[in-house]
Write a structure and sequence with these properties.
Length: 210
């Protein structure tokens, strides 16, 4: 009798433990408003057909611009669709994670999941170490990326590790070795200055991890 009771109790404990680690995927962008986001929504960022759009195909983007969440995140799985098109100059974009705005400046500091030819699937350290921290294999990226079309981007940030996936293909797996680098911060989308480029983001969701 006692053995049966203990087995049942163990089952309850396991069930409770399983429930404790269940996470929920929630939208970060409602497709209609900039609720939960902040940035230059008067000149740079707009909403078109349920997507966040930044940049221009007719005028050179003057400088890097970011649309950021109004709250920070630590451990999560971020999923979104991104499409980048351009006509001339340096056409580039990216997704910032665990980042912060520089006070009284247009730039942000933090990890960037890069978007753009020669940069797709890489992790760049924006306005901090100013270098590629993890470079994607060009052959892998070439097969995964759909040029001028919608691409699925998945960013997993857990502990000191960041993993990027493009259209289901893992491009980099990076673990931070510098203990002074913050592992918490804002999420943001970017349009890079210096080119005539247009970037669009949609279906942005986040699953926060314990």
């Amino acid at each position: 009798m006692k053995s049966g009771f203990l087995s049942a109790l163990a089952g309850v404990v396991l069930s409770v433990s399983a429930l404790a680690v269940v996470t929920e995927t929630v939208p970060l962008f409602d497709g209609k408003t900039f609720t939960g986001w902040e940035g230059d929504t008067a000149k740079i960022w707009r909403i078109e057909s349920g997507s966040i759009v930044g940049g221009s195909l007719s005028q050179t983007v003057a400088r890097n611009e970011f649309l950021a969440t109004t709250r920070g995140y630590t451990n999560f799985i971020l999923r979104l669709k991104v499409k980048l098109t351009g006509t001339e100059g340096f056409v580039n974009s990216g997704v910032q994670i665990r980042s912060q705005r520089i006070p009284n400046h247009h730039e942000m500091v933090g990890y960037q999941a890069d978007v753009g030819e020669g940069w797709w699937g890489c992790i760049y350290d924006e306005s901090r170490r100013n270098k590629v921290l993890a470079k994607a294999d060009e052959a892998v990226v070439k097969k995964a990326v759909k040029a001028n079309e919608w691409n699925d981007y998945e960013i997993v940030a857990e502990g000191k590790t960041v993993i990027l996936k493009l259209n289901g293909v893992e491009t980099v797996n990076y673990t931070e070795t510098d203990d002074t680098i913050p592992q918490h911060g804002l999420i943001a989308v970017q349009i890079h200055g210096g080119g005539k480029g247009l970037v669009a983001f949609k279906d942005i969701t986040i699953e926060e991890l314990p």
